[in-house]
Design brief:
Largest sheet: 8 strands, mixed
Oligomer: single chain
Helix content: 25-40%
CATH superfamily: Alpha/Beta hydrolase fold, catalytic domain
Number of strands: 8
Radius of gyration: 19 Å
Structural class: alpha/beta
Order of helices and strands: HHEEEEHEHEHHHHHEHEHH
């Protein structure tokens, strides 16, 4: 039996010939720049756009989706935000502002032809902040929203780090980490030497560093500090940059589209808070990853993707 032509042929010819890769021109206050996107699969009913973390990280760690979403018949889009590895990296600090990133996502949506009949938006970590902000401005264009491993309040996240994460660390290592941060010496190799065994392997990715999957290693390797530090701040144990006062918990009730929040027991983000976020939304649902950390798409992978797929199909 031949495949349904309507189902399979929903992209333009140039997109198919390029393997789904498109450079999308983005208008900014500093002029026009290009951002990189790649479509995988064809499904006119379910189109998922990934918003990576950082800010200034890359889409690459989402490549775990390749093992799950194609078999489920889900069309999805990788996308490097402006300033990230595959996209243009302009040298203008005033471009690293949350409202401009929201406008960028809207320009990408329009260019890709996504709409309320098929458009699902997944934001992970910083991408979760961006996804929430986008939904509060443009939810009329969204069919469903996924906020993965990101609390709706940076002050609440910082408080969780102080109350729960830091007391559980080796206190001698923590004291040295804080000394390096106070001295503005976070580029010192010693900083990551301390963070990886004392923080990352417990709360970011629960694997031995030498076993971290290649997509994760590439994403970390190409993180752009010129975007990351101004917005997130130099510390890996909390946020202190432009996002330090960001808080949208009180506004989550304005989001009326079906929404999934994803939390993990070993995450840097409080899983109980992620569950409360789902309750605060009109049509919220919570996915719990008991074995996962901040990158639960790797260390609790089956739970993560099976729950995501179920949500996409239910919505």
């Amino acid at each position: 039996m031949p495949p349904d032509a309507t189902y399979f042929d929903n992209s333009n010819r140039s997109d198919r010939l390029s393997g789904g890769v498109r450079l999308i021109p983005i208008e900014t206050p500093r002029g026009r720049f290009n951002v990189w996107t790649k479509r995988v699969g064809n499904n006119p009913r379910i189109k998922l756009l990934f918003l990576h973390g950082g800010p200034g990280c890359t889409h690459e760690y989402f490549e775990a989706a390749d093992s799950w979403l194609p078999a489920a018949g889900i069309e999805y889009y990788y996308y490097d935000q402006l300033g990230s590895h595959y996209s243009d990296q302009p040298e203008h600090d005033d471009l690293w502002e949350l409202p401009r990133f929201v406008d960028e996502v809207e320009q990408v949506r329009v260019a890709l032809g996504l709409d309320a009949g098929n458009f699902f938006l997944l934001g992970h970590s910083w991408g979760g902040i961006l996804a929430i902000e986008y939904a509060l401005t443009y939810q009329r264009h969204i069919k469903g929203l996924i906020v993965s491993n990101m609390m709706a309040s940076i002050p609440a996240y910082n408080a969780y780090a102080e109350r729960v994460l830091m007391p559980s660390m080796d206190q001698t290592a923590l004291a040295e980490i804080k000394r390096l941060e106070a001295a503005g010496d976070t580029q010192n190799p010693r900083y990551m030497e301390l963070l990886i065994p004392n923080h990352y392997v417990h709360h970011v990715l629960r694997m031995k560093p030498e076993e971290w999957p290649d997509p994760v290693q590439r994403a970390f390797k190409f993180l752009n500090p010129k975007v990351y530090v101004p917005m997130q701040g130099p510390s890996e144990l909390g946020a202190s940059g432009k996002l330090a006062q960001w808080d949208r918990m009180a506004r989550l009730g304005e989001i009326a589209v079906p929404t999934l929040t994803i939390g993990a027991h070993h995450d840097t983000m409080d899983p109980a808070y992620l569950q409360a976020m789902a309750r605060a939304m009109k049509r919220g649902r919570y996915l719990d990853c008991p074995n996962g950390s901040h990158m639960a798409m790797y260390d609790d992978q089956a739970r993560y993707f099976e729950g995501l797929i179920a949500f996409l199909k239910d919505a």
